[in-house]
Specification:
CATH class of chain B: Mainly Beta
Shape of chain B: globular
Distance between the termini of chain A: 41 Å
Number of strands of chain A: 11
Strand content of chain B: over 45%
CATH superfamily of chain B: Immunoglobulins
Helix content of chain B: under 10%
Number of domains of chain A: 1
Number of strands of chain B: 11
Oligomer: heterodimer
Low-confidence stretches of chain A: none
Largest sheet of chain B: 7 strands, mixed
CATH superfamily of chain A: Immunoglobulins
Largest sheet of chain A: 6 strands, mixed
Distance between the termini of chain B: 33 Å
Low-confidence stretches of chain B: none
Strand content of chain A: over 45%
Number of helices of chain A: 0
Mean pLDDT of chain B: 94
């Protein structure tokens, strides 16, 4: 069945360091969405990428969608303590109704 | 945040009892989803709905049933709760399966 894996599972960084999480799907996704979940909170939508090879930026966050639409990455430049949380990629399988979330990357930022 | 209300927010119950969780939305969104979140497993889709009385199974649907008799309400039922169903349950809504999802605050369910 469909699998969406993320690596790493955990990442501990010093404030100011960069951070990257990678998302890989076993099948093609029609789009990729990224969510952030703060400790004790619910997932919150960050961004959606639709086109093959698309790159989008939100301030210090850079999102990429792979050419084959099976992988994606989120890069945070100069992390801050407010970046703490778990980052999930997610997306609907191409031509199907099923929606899958990645396993998530938990980011901890030390001040 | 989108108008999504989950109830109850916390529940403790015993093995073998029936449990119903409710998700209510005020956004008139077509799609509604139920997920469970467990440590090490991320978010796993239980069931989803793409319209009134239109539902389909997700990846972990065994032991769960759902109903959607109105656009605004999506109910998740555990017919006979088991300890393995102890989890945090999230409801989400979206305008379409390709569109972003907006989540409720979650229900923490403990089955003893």
């Amino acid at each position: 069945g469909q699998q969406v894996m993320q690596i790493p599972q955990y990442q501990h960084v010093q404030e100011g360091e960069d951070f990257t999480t990678y998302c890989n799907s076993s099948t093609t996704l029609s789009n990729i969405q990224w969510y952030k979940q703060r400790p004790g909170g619910h997932p919150v939508f960050l961004i959606q990428l639709v086109k093959s090879g698309e790159v989008k930026k939100q301030k210090r966050l850079t999102f990429q969608f792979g050419e084959a639409k099976k992988n994606s990455s989120l890069h945070i430049t100069a992390t801050q303590t407010t970046d703490v949380g778990t980052y999930f990629c997610a997306g609907p399988e191409d031509n199907f109704n099923k929606f899958y979330f990645g396993s998530g990357t938990k980011l901890n930022v030390k001040p | 945040d989108a108008g999504i209300t989950q109830s109850p927010r916390h529940k403790v119950t015993e093995t073998g009892t029936p449990v119903t969780l409710r998700c209510h939305q005020t956004e008139n969104h077509r799609y509604m989803y139920w997920y469970r979140q467990d440590p090490g497993h991320g978010l796993r889709l239980i069931h989803y709905s793409y319209g009134v009385k239109d539902t389909d199974k997700g990846e972990v649907s065994d032991g769960y049933s759902v109903s959607r008799s109105k656009t605004e309400d999506f109910l998740l039922t555990l017919e006979s709760a088991t300890s393995s169903q102890t989890s945090v349950y999230f409801c989400a809504i979206s305008g379409g399966n390709n569109q972003p999802q907006h989540f409720g605050d979650g229900t923490r369910l403990s089955i003893l």
